[in-house]
Each structure stands twice: as C-alpha cells, then as structure tokens.
Automatic annotation (TrEMBL):
The lineage of its organism: Eukaryota, Metazoa, Ecdysozoa, Arthropoda, Hexapoda. InterPro entries: Leu-rich_rpt, Leu-rich_rpt_typical-subtyp, LRR_dom_sf, LRR_domain-containing, LRR_R13L4/SHOC2-like. Residues 121-209 form the Disease resistance R13L4/SHOC-2-like LRR domain. It holds the Pfam family LRR_14. The gene is LOC4805601. One of its GO terms (cellular component) is cytoplasm. Residues 20-32 have a biased composition (Basic and acidic residues). PROSITE patterns: LRR. It comes from Drosophila pseudoobscura pseudoobscura. Keywords: Leucine-rich repeat, Repeat. This is Leucine-rich repeat-containing protein 40. Residues 1-32 are annotated as: Disordered. The keyword Transmembrane helix does not apply.
C-alpha cells in the first residue's frame, strides 16, 4: 500500500542561492500578486500557519482560488473563513491536516476541494452541506470508510478516494447511491473485499477504478475490461425481487 499523508515524500525547504534578498523573501503573496489572477498560491514553502493579513488582502482582491500545496499545515487555516463567500477551489494537497472543521460548510460556492496526502480519517457531517461541490479528492489519507456525509453532496461528479484503508462501500441511497451526478469514482488501492452489486445501478458512472483491492469478485479479468464491464457484471449480481 502506498504511503499515506504522514509518510508521503515532502520537498525539503529549498536552500537559498546565497543572495540575501532570496533568503529573506516572504513566501506569502501580496495583493498585487493576487489582483490579476484572483488566486492565492503558497506552494512548497514549508509554512505551518498563514497570517490573517494575507487572507484579508485576498478578500479585498476577491480571490476565489486558494492553493496551499506541499506545506506543513496542521489544520485548515482558521482565517480562510474570510473567503467563505468567494472560494470556488481549495487545494490543500500534501500537508499534515488531520481533520476538517465544521465551518467548511459555510463555503457555499466551493466546487473543487482537494486534500490528498494528509492525515484525514473522516469528514464532518456538516461537509455534506456543500451543495455546489463537483470534485472531491481525499486520496492518500487514512480513511477506513467513505465519510457518511458524501451521500449529501448532490452535485458531486468526481470522487477520488484511492490509496486509503477503505474496507466497505456503501452504495445504498444513503451513500453512493444518492449521487445521481457521479461520473468518476476511484477506490483503487484500498482494503475492499466485496463490491455491492447495487453499485452497478449508478447509471452516470463513466470511470470506475477498483484495482489494487483484495477482491474476490469482480475478478481481475473483469476489472481489466473497464468500467462498462464492471458495471454490467455487478448488475447481473443484483437479486431479482420475488
């Protein structure tokens, strides 16, 4: 099994080339950096926290994309809430985040949320309130099951949950069965032993990935044949009502 967020390779802090200006340069963008792009990006800076002033300036410049990839954040920055009415994309890839706060439900316009390579085991039920969310990437974490709140994400089209420790799939109407818009589902490289046949009823699925699990059924040959073959096989296993 590939390493989870704690052990994922991290880029070490880059050494300066000897220039004093480079050594003392702030990793945080100023408002002029954000004005033209409406993007707040702090990448490979090994930061553990972000000053409130950075988010204040981001709000003034109406930033709607925040990228905090490959740092050392132990939590979602509290002052990120300043952008709750603006944010459409949030990328927290490769940090050390172990929980998602309930306040994330306030990000009413959030469409794409990426948090792979962290230390997550669950998502709060309030997370299901993100009714605009189209993409959720929780790969390379520590999930042992899909969070229950996922069934409430009615706009979800892409769910990436590969490389975790997921053991079971809830494909009922309270789980994945509720996601009528789901098109991409990646559950590869987990600990899944059985796939519920009713997963085959997800009519909009275009890409389904299950390789790398200790499955008895479907067999490897069916998995290798692709999404349509997997879904067709699963539908043949659905019990016929008496």
């Amino acid at each position: 099994m590939p390493a989870d967020g704690l052990n994922s390779p991290r880029v070490q802090q880059r050494k300066s080339g000897g220039g004093g200006d480079e050594k003392n340069r702030s990793p945080f963008p100023d408002k002029y950096d954000m004005r033209g792009t409406r993007v707040l990006s702090i990448y490979k800076s090994q930061i553990t926290e972000i000053p409130m002033e950075v988010f204040e300036e981001a709000r003034q410049e109406e930033v709607n994309v925040v990228q905090l990839k490959d740092n050392r954040l132990g939590e979602v920055p509290k002052d990120l809430n300043m952008l709750s009415e603006l944010l459409t994309q949030l990328d927290l890839t490769k940090n050390q985040i172990s929980y998602i706060p309930t306040s994330m439900s306030q990000f009413s316009k959030l469409a794409h949320f990426k948090v792979p390579c962290n230390l997550l085991r669950d998502l709060p039920m309030e997370f299901g309130g993100l009714q605009m969310l189209c993409t959720l990437d929780i790969s390379f974490n520590r999930f042992e099951r899909l969070p229950r709140c996922i069934g409430d994400l009615q706009s979800l089209e892409t769910l990436l949950a590969h490389d975790n420790h997921i053991k079971d799939i809830d494909a009922s109407e309270a789980g994945l069965g509720a996601l009528k818009n789901l098109q991409v589902l990646d559950l590869s490289n987990n600990d899944i032993r059985q796939v519920p046949p009713i997963l085959g009823n997800l009519q909009n699925i275009r890409e389904l990935y299950l390789m790398g699990n200790p499955l008895r059924q479907p067999r490897h040959q069916i998995l290798s044949a692709g999404t349509n073959a997997i879904l067709a096989f699963l539908r043949t296993r659905i019990p016929v009502p008496q």
